[in-house]
Amino acid sequence: MKLVKIVVIGFGNVGRAFAKIVALKKNILEGRYGVSPIIVGVADSRGMAIKGDGFTEYELLKLCEVPRSGVNMFSPYAHDFVDIKYMYDAVQPDIHVELTPSNYIEGEPGLSNILFAFSRGVHVVTANKAPLALKYSDLVDMARKRSLHIKFRSTVMGGTPLIDIITSLRSEDIERIDGILNATTNFILTEMHDKFIEFDEALKRAQVLGVAEANPSLDIEGLDAAAKLVILSHVIGCSVKLDDVKRETLSKVKLRDVVEAIKEGYIIKYIASLDTRKREAWVKVLKIPRGDVFAQINGTLNAVKIKTDVGELFFVGKGGGGIETAHSVLDDVVAIALSVKGDKR
Amino acid sequence: MVLKIGGSLLKNGRDYLDVAQKIRSTLLENDLRPIVVVSASKGITDLLIQIVRGYKVLIKEVENRYMGIAYELGSVKLVRRVEEEVSRLRRIAESIEVSDPALMDYVLSYGERISKIIMVQALEMQGINAFELNATDIIITNSVHGDAIIDYPATAVALEKIYGVIKDRKYVPVVEGFIGRSSEGEITTIGRGGSDYTATTIAALLKLDKVYLVTDVDGIMTTDPDIVSTAKLVNYMSYVEALEASMYGAKGINPKAFDPLEKVYSSKILIGSWRHFGTTISREIPLEYYGPKVVMLKDMADYSYIAIIGEGVSRAEFLRDVLDIIVRLGVEIKGVQSYIHRPSMVLYVDKSQSREILKMLHKALFEEGYTK
After folding, report:
1. One domain for residues A261 and A279
2. Are A208 and B103 within 8 A, CB to CB?
3. Is B372 a residue whose pLDDT tops 70?
4. A209 at the B interface (CB within 8 A)?
5. Do A124 and A235 sit in the same domain of this protein?
6. Residues of A numbered 145-204 whose beta carbons fall under 8 angstroms of chain B's beta carbons: which are they?
7. Between B117, B161, B171, which is nearest A58 by CB?
8. Which residues does NADP(+) bind (chain A) (predicted)?
9. Interface contact flag, A300 B95, Cβ < 8 Å
10. What is the CATH number of the domain that holds A237?
11. Least Cα separation, residue B105 to chain A (angstroms)
């Protein structure tokens, strides 16, 4: 049995869902793959909980019950400060799971955390998009030089393994990618079309139902979708900078526009596109013919159409969602565990 | 076993601690490990219904009640958790439109959810390894907001995944009753008194033999003891009898609670208080237990009806006996209704005489040793 010691940095919805599924699926993973993931440290913005020989299933379930930013209340394993170096020294992790919130200005704290993990020879799985959207090449190069993995399947289309599939298209040339990459804005648009309500009301409903965050600007201004495009552009080897992605805000869409579009036989969608030939990327509000496949993608679903020199591929799956994202993170953890031969210690 | 704690037992912090203490002393110390299903604290669901109907000032009352309980228990962690939940509830309630059933269910779900968080803390304070199980993770329903039906196959899959991890350990899972999640991911509620339905569903799907419904009375009574002081406990009933009684408005069990027991697995229901679980309800009862079990009165606008419920009471012989009693008593009735396929006989009576007739019938059927 290969023990994999994991530290989890960032403990919001995804972090809690991750702790829960590690608790519930540990036995299955041990049986199927001989991999035993154990969580040895958890940190949020105010504190840490550390246990060198790994939290038990029960302790992981109880960790999910601490208040927001309340890991420091998880006695007797709690610490009232955040110091990742201290945590690393105490537990010697194998894999660092980065779940801090995305910050597209300087990428912190995710960027420094990932760099620190590399400096200590620790593999990284991140659901935080910002460090990749800003410093993809640097991070991937650094990992390669140190023979470390950095995996980020959950960053695009949450629970759908799009990045793995794109990576596997080795002989095809990808010419273009179009997608509905942001669940929150697609939910808002679906609400506007189904219920004939104004943008603000649809947004409020999304916030109340927990689909949108209290500060939804990353989604509504298209930054989240743009960051996903940037990550995809790097994965397929046609890198685009985050600043170069042209963005339109969704907030300008009025109920009037929706009604108009419907009358003309269209649906309004918020589409992210990458043209690899022109090296151009944009996030735009577009009218889509009602019969188009994208017109059928509603609510929190995501979809991506990949045009290659061979043909077109289409993927549909749930975006976002704590449980879905957490599974993608755990998949990455297991993939790293399986690809690292033997135990380096 | 599954143990459902009714809201009438959860009025204040002391009550939560009492229930936790009883779970320890009557179950855990006898090596019985329950899955606990909790209702909202008494009166909270009514407040939440008022809130979704537009009386938003009542949020303050819900807040006071639950925060009061949290402070009473004295755990900082609990106070912060309840604070978080209440402020989310406030945000939702303040932005909801009355016509939005999905959001109404969302608001209603907070009554049970907060109750569960408190119960787990109370159990921990008794030294019990309890943890929160989310109904939204395990109870999968259709999308009929306000009165959803549980999808047994989907719920079984979700439930077994979690149960597989906990069944051999000394943990006590606590799940909130009354709420579920539709396959589209929205929160649903399964109808008033739905916690019974949650409890019987969990028991049936996990093939657990017993469901305890804990309340503040010792079991189901032969009639309303407020009207007839000589009402007695009913010791044994069949599902169909209990279902018939609940359809005629008997307090106690939600009619939907019998559905999983009929369709999936026949767990026994035991109803009562910590003192005494006086009523056992099982799929079938032996022939010698056939006969009237419950007689209940319901006043309508212009008349009243008295329903006599029990296996075999719709047989001609019993109908004749009841009519003989009526004739002997010298009262008149406005109508009789009975179908052979239903375990009931209904008498329509004058409103002014209804209580008198109920008392006399109760006496003849349950106190003077009626034998069929």
Report:
1. yes
2. yes
3. no
4. yes
5. no
6. 204
7. B171
8. 10-15
9. no
10. 3.30.360.10
11. 11
- Report yes or no for ipTM above 0.95: no
For residue B106, the chain A residues in CB contact (below 8 A) are 208-209
| Total domain count, chain A | 2
- Asked whether residue A264 falls in the same domain as residue A299, the answer is yes
Dist. CA A166–CA A162, nearest whole Å: 6
Span B24-52, average pLDDT: 93
* Residue range(s) occupied by CATH 3.30.70.260 in chain B: 290-367
- Bigger pLDDT: A340 or A227? A227
Check: CB of residue B200 under 8 Å from CB of residue B194. no
pTM more than 0.95: no
- For A285, phi then psi, to 5°, come to -85, 120
pLDDT in tens, B123-151: 999 999 999 999 999 999 999 999 999 99
- Using a CB-CB distance cutoff of 8 angstroms, which residues of chain A are in contact with residue B117? 65
Domain that residue A294 falls in:
163-318
Assess A61–B contact: CB distance below 8 Å, yes or no.
yes
Residue numbers of A annotated as active site: 228
> Do A68 and A93 belong together in one domain?
yes
pLDDT in tens, B221-235: 999 999 999 999 999
Fold designation for B2-215: Carbamate kinase (3.40.1160)
Joined tokens for residue B143: 């999308």
A205 touches chain B (CB under 8 A): yes
Domain of residue A62, CATH code: 3.40.50.720
Average pLDDT over chain A reads 94
The minimal CB distance from B77 to the residues A67, A207, A300 is found for A67
CATH number of B290-367: 3.30.70.260
**Smallest Cβ distance to A204: which of B95, B162, B171?**
B95
Q: Are residues A306 and A329 in the same domain?
A: no
pLDDT, position B182: 94
